[in-house]
Amino acid sequence: MAGYDLSNRLVIGIASSALFNLDESGRVFNEQGPAAYLAYQREHLDDTLRPGVAYPFVRRLLSLNDLSADPDDPLVEVIVLSRNSPETGLRVMRSIAAHELPITRAIFTEGRAPFPYMEPLNMALFLSADAADVRQAVENGLPAGHVQESPGLDDDPLDRGLRVAFDFDSVLADDASEQVYASGGLHRFQEHELANQNLAHEPGPLRELLRRLNQIQAEEERRREDLPGYRMRLRVSVVTARSAPAHERALWSLREWGLRVNDAFFLGGIAKGPILETLRPHIFFDDQQLHLTSESVPSVHIPFGVRNAEPRPGRGGPPTSRTPPPSDTTMQHTWLP
Fold first, then answer.
1. CATH of the domain at 191
2. CATH code of the domain containing 69
3. Cα–Cα dist 250/176, whole Å
4. Does residue 3 belong to any structural domain of this protein?
5. 93 and 127 co-located in one domain
6. Which long-range contacts (CB under 8 A, 24 or more apart) does 20-27 make?
7. Would residue 263 show up in a list of annotated catalytic residues for this protein?
8. I need a surface site. Which of 220, 229, 323, 329 has the fewest CB within 10 A?
9. What does R_g of the chain's alpha carbons equal in angstroms?
10. Helix (H, G, I), strand (E, B) or coil at 170
């Protein structure tokens, strides 16, 4: 019997810290340790966890599986990747069931980073609130994002749409042009992009995610052909600090990749926050923390490229401030769900 094939699906990995609000249980872990945390999760096993930052995105993404003619052959697969132990992960799985999310697959690694399982599971994205896990995944060439704290979540049950927004450089594309900007400034960057406007960028960490989203949009277009009244639900945007003439290379790259977006915002230094608050994406990916300050937009930091380079000890810069990923022996000191 053949196994369940993930190769033709959009597969997302989600940490429990991204899917649910774990503030309360996290405090127990940090203040009282793993034994108290285990006891707390046992006591609250049937207390459903509240939605977290990535919940609206995940719920809407999974709803697009109704485009598949066969319920056993979904377009989207979401798999839990969690540092919880199998037993403490029980509450996560019961909360998933209580929220009626069609997520049935999970990996619990009890204190160890779960991202090494992304590649065998064909994941186009891993979302986590654990910054160290995400950075290590990206350093290993994997598409991961660190969800940012967001007090306001737009999850109107009457709104069936899914709006996804990407920055361009160091997110969809590589960071080669940002390296030019970092070393030569805006004028040199604009010259470089104009001279290379017909040369597609190398892919960035989330280009494959966009490709998979475009495949779902193609399914929506086929549905609209069969049902003229069907309203497209998935909408994809690029929100970038690029402006003319550098916009042409971004559009040329999308064309050469065989990909597309519905909206493009070439802001040329205008603050992204007000634009995003009007666009109201259910998730926004950017490589720079300064663009992820909106309290009403679920945001994800992609720690890739020159903007996120960290000095290494002994190489002429200050020691890195990042705490190394905890091992089994250090997990009692850090909440890493």
1. 3.40.50
2. 3.40.50.1000
3. 13
4. no
5. yes
6. 20/49, 20/50, 20/51, 20/52, 20/55, 20/92, 20/95, 21/49, 21/50, 21/51, 21/52, 22/49, 22/52, 22/129, 22/335, 22/337, 25/337, 26/335, 26/337
7. no
8. 229
9. 20
10. coil
160-177: average pLDDT: 96
Answer yes or no: are the C-beta atoms of 177 and 193 closer than 8 Å. yes
For residues 225 and 105, membership in a common domain is answered with: no
Cα gap 161→164, rounded to integer Å? 10
The pTM (predicted TM-score) of the whole model is: 0.90
Local structure of residue 161 (DSSP, 8 states): -
Domain enclosing residue 48, as ranges: 10-147+327-333
Q: Are residues 97 and 219 in the same domain?
A: no
Backbone φ/ψ region at 45: left (φ over 0), alpha (ψ -120 to 50), beta:
alpha
**Is a pLDDT exceeding 50 seen at residue 322?**
no
Q: Tell whether 116 and 171 lie within a shared domain.
A: no
pLDDT in tens, 2-16: 689 999 999 999 999
The pLDDT value given to residue 151: 63
Write out the two tokens for 45.
């096993």
Domains in the chain, number: 2
Q: Which residue among 130, 167, 174, 287 is the active-site one?
A: 167
